[in-house]
Design brief:
Number of strands of chain B: 2
Shape of chain B: globular
CATH architecture of one domain in chain A: 3-Layer(aba) Sandwich
Strand content of chain B: under 5%
Helix content of chain A: 55-70%
Distance between the termini of chain A: 24 Å
Number of helices of chain B: 7
Strand order of the largest sheet of chain B: 1-2
Largest sheet of chain B: 2 strands, antiparallel
Shape of chain A: elongated
Oligomer: heterotrimer
Number of domains of chain B: 1
Structural class of chain A: alpha+beta
Number of helices of chain A: 20
Largest sheet of chain A: 7 strands, antiparallel
Structural class of chain B: mainly alpha
Strand content of chain A: 15-25%
CATH superfamily of one domain in chain A: P-loop containing nucleotide triphosphate hydrolases
């Protein structure tokens, strides 16, 4: 008979402003994820169920549950209170069970009267739809029946509703007999336990009856009577001592559990210090590598104008060769010029050249002054004279050879160095690539170290526990354990002494002449005792069998939940200690593993819960009721989260998980890369279910804070 | 004129560039990365950017002379350019190409017998050639900056630009001995 | 577990087998719904029935005593 939640809606409930239609989450079989940051309606979501089932809401400020009816004003949406005259605050769940559809609504009506806000008490409304016919359920008893028997049965509710901080309470192994009670329930032993109780009483009564009869029928038997009295007293002493030992054992168990929790914090702190120092080293290395990369990158442009190997001149060796040749040629020409005495005839500056002069004579005009120069005039003759003048030999000679030579000299080393340039560029690129690779490795290592830190109880500075308190508590707990152990030991040796003396008394009593009339009473008492032993033994056997099954199941879940972690989570060992079942985490050699982070402690609890839920003992099928959980992950790393989503579908038909660890407020889609991965797996069909992300519409002050949501997968 | 004087004449010159490239010059010269992050080291002085642009023009084998209409800016004179071997190399490349100077074809040997004024003329033409190649380079860089700004986010941007250029400078290079033509 | 199942479990007890003289490798063949010849079995049944029917301790004790003629 399975219950599936079809949808959950809110109306003006905390951050969820607006109508049910506006704040509706539609769910399916499988894992339904609501991904939201703190203060974005995550715990509020869960509070809807708390209000419905328990008339309570969880106040995360004081970390405790409060009466919902006293908290209604705080539960109402700030925006509605500010803006609406009349409004409803409500939580609605629509679920189906056995082909019947139910719509369950818990609500309160608010209105402003003369400027004051008043409200009704919480009310419950249930509508049942069967074969398309709507049927309102008005009778209170019928309503409670639907909530407590149909929706999520009362007996299972503790397992169906899991709120992060209260998970401890659920599997609070420090509570006396908590787990053993659960095992009793699982094994359906409660009836058998009742039988044990009765049988014990009957055995005692039979014994008492025998004693009475025996006393009645004994004559002049002061010796016997004295022995009987002694026997009774001794038995009483032994009984008392046993009770005291049991009480001391209880205290030791409680102390051991507390010690285990403290161990996790104390020994982890030195581990955390070590991991933190690794983290620091790694950060320094990362910064150094980044600096190295920066320097290389900065130097590249400078290399273009490096004096010895300028990248600017890559491939230009031909220029030097050409220049060299020209210089050679030039030297040759110069030499030739000197040898031949060939002089280049030059006219003085500003003088017209030969062809100009000839032209002037022909045209009979002086081009210099513009005046006419008639043939054979004075001007004309002057021009002719210049033309006929013997050419002057210019003695102006420049001397530039050295200039070219000096240039050649300064640039000469480049003929060797330019060819090396390509190689130099390659090597810089390689250097840079190598440094970038190193950086990637260091950064990956950084993530690993952070995970380790997380596992060791984490990023937290564990403000809940300060070191002094831990140490003092730790001392107290250790003292308690040793004191009680000593006590038990001394009491046990006293019991031995008394038992010995009791045996002697019993032997004496047995030797006294027996009255046959009394024999049947004695036989009766003996048989009742034997039967009592049998029944008790049977109960123990069943109990132990159940523990074994549970341990196996829990270990499977534990392994699945902790797989992939760098630190091995070990395995769970269930040990029965009288009426208490202790669960410890052991390594492969069965040595106790202490100092595992609180993540592993939570994982242990979660594994036990899941094992209980999926246990096949007592013919329980897969948990056929919705599993609704708020933030069970606050201590876990991404590995745990992935494992949880792997394991959950096989344990719960439908789970609704409220989680913040997949939320990234800075991402466009508000998801961490891990969140995206899980979403993708959902879209691929690897994880069945739905995926919602809560977002804040307005970043106003807190009174205006409104949560709405996006559906990424339905 | 002796070699010292020729040297001084050349080194006293201040090549010019088109004013429209001034923002580009400023970006590359003072902040290596033109996307403005200033992560990579810079060319430092304007003349280095100018030398870089010159080499680009040389490699492309293309001259784009500054026109009379262009507004021009100048910067430090050649004597201040560093590193000196690179500067000298650039002069070498210019001297390799004297035969192709605008409208004149200079042979080194003619220079030996030129007057002071002619030598000054020659130096001017030399500088103009330099400006023309550099102008090509600046146009090229401006285009890169305008259309492919993403390139400038890599520290290898200036190296990559060089590596991707063709070697058309070879075409303007003469290594054979020819008969002189006056 | 109901009464019958508890009864069955108890019958598996080695101690009980010893009491009624059945070898450990064999089963005690008794039926919850029928009368037994063995006193021990009848007592056990009475206790189980007593618990299921919420009979008082006195009541159960009285019933058992009659089996022993007491």
């Amino acid at each position: 008979m399975a219950t599936i939640i079809n949808s959950v809606s809110f109306e003006n409930f905390y951050n969820y402003y607006g109508s049910y239609d506006h704040n509706e989450y539609k769910f399916k079989l499988g894992v339904n994820i609501v991904n939201a940051d703190n203060n974005m309606g995550k715990s509020k979501f869960y509070n809807g169920f708390m209000w419905l089932f328990r008339d309570q809401v969880y106040d995360s400020d004081i970390k405790a549950f409060t009466d919902a009816n006293e908290s209604l004003v705080r539960m109402a949406s700030g925006k509605a209170k500010a803006e609406n005259d009349k409004f409803k605050v409500g939580f609605r769940v629509i679920f189906s069970n056995d082909n019947v559809l139910y719509s369950v609504e818990k609500y309160a009506l608010f209105k402003h009267v003369d400027g004051e806000l008043s409200h009704s008490e919480s009310q419950l409304s249930i509508m049942e739809t069967k074969n398309n016919a709507d049927n309102p359920i008005l009778d209170r008893n019928d309503q409670q029946d639907i909530l407590n028997r149909v929706f999520i049965p009362l007996a299972l509710r503790n397992y169906a509703l899991l709120q992060g901080e209260s998970m401890d309470r659920l599997v609070d192994l420090s509570q006396k007999k908590a787990l053993s009670d659960t095992i009793d329930t699982l094994a359906g032993i409660s009836v058998l336990k009742g039988i044990c109780e009765i049988s014990k009483k009957l055995a005692k009564r039979a014994e008492d009856l025998y004693q009475i009869k025996d006393s009645e029928n004994s004559e002049n038997d002061t010796a016997k009577q004295r022995d009987k009295d002694k026997r009774n007293r001794t038995q009483q002493l032994i009984e008392n001592a046993k009770t005291e030992i049991e009480a001391a054992n209880d205290e030791i168990s409680a102390a051991k559990i507390q010690k285990e929790q403290l161990d996790a914090y104390i020994s982890n702190s030195s581990k955390r210090i070590e991991i933190r120092s690794q983290l620091d080293q790694n950060s320094i290395s990362i910064n150094n590598e980044k600096e190295k990369i920066r320097k290389i990158e900065q130097s590249i442009t400078g290399m273009i104008f490096d004096e010895e190997n300028p990248l600017l001149l890559m491939g230009l060796t031909d220029e030097l060769d050409a220049f060299d040749e020209r210089r050679e040629k030039h030297i040759g020409e110069l030499a030739q010029m000197n040898n031949d005495n060939t002089l280049v005839i030059m006219l003085p500056e500003g003088s017209p050249d030969t062809s100009s002069l000839e032209r002037m004579l022909k045209n009979e005009v002086c081009e210099v002054c513009g005046q006419p120069a008639e043939m054979h005039s004075e001007a004309w003759n002057h021009i002719k004279m210049i033309l006929d003048r013997p050419k002057k030999i210019s003695t102006t000679r420049n001397d530039f050879g050295h200039f070219y030579g000096a240039l050649q000299k300064t640039a000469s080393s480049y003929s060797r160095n330019i060819p090396k340039i390509e190689g130099k560029i390659e090597s810089v690129k390689e250097q840079l690539d190598r440094a970038k690779e190193n950086l990637n490795e260091l950064e990956a290592r950084h993530d690993d170290i952070l995970t380790q830190l997380n596992n060791a109880g984490g990023n937290a500075d564990n403000s809940e526990f300060n070191d002094k308190a831990i140490i003092s508590d730790y001392d107290t707990v250790n003292t308690t354990i040793s004191t009680k152990e000593r006590e038990i030991s001394s009491k046990q040796s006293m019991i031995v002494t008394w038992t010995d003396s009791l045996s002697a008394i019993m032997r004496r009593l047995a030797s006294y002449k027996k009255n046959t009339a009394i024999q049947k009473y004695e036989d009766f008492a003996i048989m009742m005792k034997a039967i009592d032993d049998v029944i008790r033994q049977t109960k123990d056997d069943i109990f132990n069998c159940t523990i074994e099954s549970l341990a196996k199941e829990a270990n499977e879940k534990y392994k699945a939940l902790t797989k992939g972690n760098q630190v091995s989570g070990g395995q769970l060992r269930f040990v029965r200690d009288h009426d208490i079942v202790n669960v410890s985490i052991r390594d492969v050699q069965n040595g106790e593993i202490t100092g595992l982070g609180t993540g592993f402690q939570r994982m242990k609890q979660l594994a036990i819960v899941m094992a209980i839920i999926s246990s096949k003992i007592g013919n329980e099928k897969k948990f056929d009721y919705p599993f609704i959980s708020d933030a069970p992950f606050s201590e876990f790393g991404p590995n745990f989260i992935t494992n949880f989503f792997d394991v959950a579908p096989s344990v719960f038909s439908q789970s609704i998980i409220l989680i913040k660890e997949l939320y990234d407020p800075n991402a466009d889609d508000y998801l961490t890369s891990h969140g995206r991965k899980i979403l993708q797996e959902m879209k691929n069909g690897d994880i069945p279910g739905t995926f919602y992300v809560n977002v804040i519409d307005e970043k106003a002050d807190t009174t205006g804070l409104i949560t709405s949501h996006k559906c990424y997968k339905y | 004129m002796n070699h010292q004087e020729l040297r001084e004449a050349i080194f006293a010159r201040k090549p010019r560039y088109n004013e429209k490239f001034k923002p580009l010059m400023e970006r590359i010269s003072t902040k290596g990365d033109v996307t403005g992050k200033g992560d990579f080291s810079t060319f430092g002085a304007f003349y280095q950017t100018f030398m870089y642009a010159y080499i680009i023009g040389l490699r492309l084998g293309k001259k784009t002379p500054l026109s009379g209409d262009d507004k021009k800016c100048d910067f430090a004179d050649i004597s201040h350019w560093k590193p000196t071997p690179i500067r000298d190399f650039i002069l070498i490349t210019l001297l390799n190409r004297t035969k192709l100077f605008d409208s004149f074809s200079w042979k080194w040997i003619s220079l030996e017998n030129s007057s002071e004024e002619s030598v000054a003329n020659f130096v001017t033409l030399l500088i103009r050639e330099m400006e023309a190649y550099a102008n090509t380079g600046l146009i090229f860089l401006q285009e890169k900056w305008g259309n492919e700004k993403i390139l400038f986010s890599s520290p290898f941007v200036f190296v990559d630009i060089l590596q991707d250029l063709p070697y058309k400078n070879e075409q303007s290079l003469e290594i054979q001995s020819e008969n002189a033509v006056e | 577990m109901d009464g019958k199942e508890i009864f069955k479990e108890i019958l598996k007890s080695p101690k009980l087998k010893e009491l009624v003289g059945v070898p450990e490798t064999e089963e005690i063949k008794e039926d919850y719904d029928s009368q037994s010849q063995r006193r021990e079995i009848t007592v056990i049944r009475s206790i189980i029935e007593g618990q299921l029917r919420h009979t008082s301790d006195d009541g159960i004790f009285r019933n058992i005593k009659t089996l022993f003629d007491l």
